[in-house]
User: Fold this.
Amino acid sequence: MARQLQDRAAQAASGDGPVDLCIINTCTVTGKASMQSRQAVRRATRANPNARIVVTGCYAQTAPQEILDIPGVDLVLGNDGKPRIADMVCNRPADPPSAAAAATAMLEDQRMSRSGRTDRARPFLKIQDGCNARCSYCIVPVARGVSRSLPVEDALSSIERLNEAGYPEIVLTGIHLGHYGLDLDPPSNLLSLLKAIRQLQSARRVRLSSIEPQELTGDLIRFVASAAAGPSAICPHFHVPLQSGDDDILRRMNRPYTREFFRELILRIKHHLPDASVGVDVLVGFPGESEAAFENTCALLDELPVTYLHVFPFSRRSGTPADLLPDQVPAAVLKARCRQIRLIGYNKKLEYYTYFINKTLEVVAESIVDADNGWMKGTSANYLPVMFRGRAEQIRTIVPVRIERVDLQGGVTGTVVS
Assistant:
């Protein structure tokens, strides 16, 4: 959206000066996210009373009237309206999208600008959007629509432009990344795209975002293991949603796998990539989650060699089957269970990080955090956040860093190796 506006001679606001236009891109994946989105809109209207306030994103898609009821909002557009925001706010007529255009609207902004520049040292490239799954707790299919993919040639050309612009790592993202390419004509898939990237050597290194367990195939794991080094290396890092370690809860969630399937998957990853980082999503307090079901989740996580956990308390979303289920877990129990799972995640992360002390990792230097003392932060291929002393010209490059210390908060520090 920013690129489209800048193409029309708009300038990004900075500091505390006057703002003519404020766009809030909202989230609604949980009730808290919706609340935070409303708060962000209200803050924007108070801070910029003379600006035009535009609200878009998933909350705008699912509950436009709730946003229109906030005083000071000028325009509400769902996700399919994002590509037209620049035309609309610059007072240029924009024809309503056709059905075909609306189906791919959420991916239009991924066609990189001519320069390919972005503010991130590790830019995200969204190659897929929408979701065909119907998890009983999830509002995302309503907010994002069906799965649709960026055409292979567009994905490859965007990656090439980012590579030419000097970015050392590209993160491939999607709502349902494992479904990439299945809707294209001819059909493709994520593994084929990764092989093409590798063959063309169109990036320094590539990272995958979250991918569903049943779509993380043996072929894909083995390919990442074979491509973890060299040009267009695939980072040894997987983020795999578990949600629950209890088979009955998984069935109620409409998740298409079992705890044993998940267990074998994680062990398969570590067999082929012993040093790989494996992140896991856990949804705590789903309706009907008994103490025994919760303990099944804890036991599975304790057993598995996972690296870190993203822990989410169950949030009722109107329009989802889980919203109507009986046996909702009390808030106090939910809070205590989340705390227990987060403690497991803390211990797993500390154990994994400590393993790399005295080892050298390839780190993307992302930003300077203390210019006076030369401290920088970056991310290793296996997803360790690393602090080290470096030079400004190392930003957006890959530097070898020997890990020297891990503190009790999980902070990792190291030294650049000549």
Summary: The first strand starts at residue 21 and ends at 26. Residues 2-96 form a domain with the Rossmann fold fold (CATH 3.40.50). The mean pLDDT is 91. The CA atoms of residues 143 and 305 lie 34 Å apart.
